[in-house]
Amino acid sequence: MPPKSSSTTTASKAGPSSSSTRNSSNNVILTLWNAYMEETPARLKLIDAFLFFLMLSGIIQFVYCVLISSFPFNAFLAGFGSCVGQFVLTASLRSQVNPSNKDEFKEVSPERAFADFALGSVVLHFFVFNFLG
């Protein structure tokens, strides 16, 4: 009597468990996305879109510098620093205007938070512009 092949039994055992893990991770991501779309105010979604743009822009600049060329290097540093600095300022704005953080920022109104963001952005870009040469 030939021995039974164990590769078919292990393949059948691994198949359903990996697909159930994939389905559960897809369900978690879908649930998270639906909760974000339903519960997040439109103002915060706009800020999140800008944060995503800044992150993507910084990644593209870094990949370009690594793969293609870093000449002139000060231009790369200025552009990348601008993305990182603007990301930090925008993340700070998001935390200050988020209604669920109202207890932590009692003295800061949304208008004041935006004014701080705008002034910080002007100062940041002044330094970035001067760094370019």
Assembly type of the shown chains?
single chain
* Overall pLDDT level: 87
Largest sheet report: none
What share of the residues lie within helices? over 70%
How big is the Rg?
24 Å
Q: What's the total count of β strands? A: 0
Tally of separate helices? 4
Q: Give the CA-based shape.
A: flat
How widely separated are the two ends?
82 Å
Low-confidence stretches: none
Q: Element order, helices and strands?
A: HHHH
Strand composition percent: under 5%
Q: Structural class given helices, strands, pairing?
A: mainly alpha
How would you briefly describe this protein structure?
The protein has helices at residues 6-39, 42-67, 73-97, 110-132. The radius of gyration is 24 Å and the shape is flat.
Can you walk me through this structure?
The chain is an all-alpha fold and 133 residues long. The protein is built from 4 helices and no strands. The longest helix has 34 residues, at 6-39.
Task: Describe how the helices and strands are arranged.
Layout: H1 6-39, H2 42-67, H3 73-97, H4 110-132
Helix pairs in contact: 2-3, 3-4
What would the keywords be for this entry?
mainly alpha, 133 residues, 0% strand
